[in-house]
Amino acid sequence: MGGEGSMMHMIHTLRNNKSMLNKRKDRRVINGSFSGEKLEFQNTATHEDLIKIRLKLQKERKQKLLKTIVIFSIFMITFLSVIIYFF
């Protein structure tokens, strides 16, 4: 029958890919982040520091939102003026 060679090639390719995946996973476990060590961070920030950080992030978020709104508004005004001019 036709196609038996291509099916056999597909089976070999899948088997080779699966064996390569297993080797990669083993190498990753040995080398680093999954070595069983826990990362511990000491919380040295006070409650006031956390409030300052929160307020700073809120301020930055508001500034980004304002910039986005201004840029979008300028783009829409330009786009609408071009559409009105040509129609």
Q: Which residues sit in consecutive blocks of at least 5 with pLDDT less than 50?
A: none
Q: Could you say which structural class the secondary elements and strand pairing correspond to? A: mainly alpha
- What's the helix count? 2
Helix fraction? over 70%
Instruction: Sum up the overall morphology in one term.
Output: flat
Helix/strand order, N-terminal first:
HH
Largest sheet: none
Strand content: under 5%
Please provide a written account of the structure:
With 87 residues, the chain is mainly alpha-helical. It has one domain (3-27, 48-86). The chain contains two helices and no strands. It has helices spanning 4-31, 47-86. The chain is flat and about 65 Å long. The chain starts with a helix and ends with a helix.
What's the quick description here?
The chain is mostly helical and 87 residues long. It has helices at residues 4-31, 47-86. The chain crosses the membrane at residues 65-86.
Which descriptors apply to this entry?
single chain, 87 residues, mainly alpha, 78% helix, flat
Topology diagram in text:
Blueprint (H helix, E strand, L loop, with lengths): L3 H28 L15 H40 L1
Keywords: Membrane, Transmembrane, Transmembrane helix
